[in-house]
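Example record

One chain of 185 residues, shown exactly as stored in the release files.
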Amino acid sequence: MAEHRSMQRAALLDAARSLLSEGGTEALTFPALAERTGLARSSVYEYFKSRAAVVEELCAVDFPVWAAEVEGAMALADDPEGKIEAYVRRQLDLVGDRRHRAVVAISASELDRGAREKIRAAHGGLVTMLAEALREMGHAEPRLVAMLLQGIVDAAARRAELGAAEEPGAIADAAVAMALRGVRG
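Predicted structure tokens for this chain:
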């Protein structure tokens, strides 16, 4: 029974990812989750009390995987500037990933306080990794600069998601150049 519930919960989360990546937060409804998973709508409520609860669970499951991928890319770099470049490029590489599209859709929506706090905490972990590279460079304000650099990544990700005229590689190159010039300045 526990294994069945775990499988159903995973199916609901997978359906939620798909709905969010395909249609944004408006698409994430309990009737749509029920339809995607073949469950009765009332059964969806047995797993999640609200849409915010689905979002919180997605953040709890997906964000650590995403962060680990960014951290792994940074660990392969030889110096702090290489870590910053890896941080920017790996996040932009993940833009096409369903987990990323779901997190972006989630963060763009109006969520309850608890869900927003979980997203903020998860983002804080990414910013902390970047701040450490900036500390290695001897930067005077590593946390502030890390948060601003995350803004560059977020803007580049939105540009890529819009299907901009520029190729994804050109967007990533521009974001890396801005980030590196900014931390050197």
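Notes: The mean pLDDT is 85.
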